[in-house]
Specification:
It comes from Streptomyces cyaneofuscatus. It is a single chain. The chain has 243 residues and is α+β, with helices and mostly antiparallel strands. 47% of the residues lie in helices and 10% in strands. It is built from nine helices and seven strands; from the N terminus they run βααβααβαααβαβββα. Strands 2, 3, 4, 5 and 6 form a five-stranded antiparallel β-sheet that branches. A two-stranded antiparallel sheet has the order 1-7. The protein is globular and about 60 Å long.
Amino acid sequence: MTMETVQADPSALGGPALFDTMSTMRAMRRLKPDAVPDETIDQLIQAAVWGPSGGNMQCYEYVVVTDREVMARLAPLWKRCVDSYLATTGKYAPEGMDEAAYGRMVAAIEYQRDHFADTPALIIPCYRFPAPRLDEEGLIASAQALGPEASERMMTSQTRFQALAEGSCVYPGVQNLLLAARGLGLAANITIWHLFLEQEWKQELGIPEDMATFAAVPVGWPQGNFGPVRRRPVADVIHRNRW
């Protein structure tokens, strides 16, 4: 696997502004401690709310943490989660990423870990997927439409289907939030490390037991500069018409 630096193409469909935003949307983990105004955070949540929502159910909620005392209580949880990640999945550089570049990324992760209490804002996207409304007639019609083999496979893949259904209702909005942050000059990065200790996070933040959390997004003004992302070449990932 190879990586390339992605530069925005001003001639791309949609004009240069959006594509420039996307092509310079690095994960920015070194944040200034300066506060982010509430109205600016509201803009980020508004962008998230504009995102697609499966079935237009809109069952999302966003926990926004800006209080320093609350952030200080979350910092030890963040440290435990990051340390767990760096000891396992994060121990090795991804294939195609050189060790020096990965070392710089780990250094940024460790910086964010060690300065988490100074994070200006933390956004936790949540979702409570409603119970499905099913009846016998509908279940019979569904089985007939899918056929017996596919119906049986669906019965054994409900856990994965449920996870994907929930995620598809949440993550488009999170991506909108990240795009809005970049457009406003804010640094942000999406993580799911909090899931290692999700119950502890939910308890600390008073999140209801039946509400699922999908990310922890630190937000603030960047210490460094935005720059082009490094991604796999488009030609390496496209399968036209079939695999």
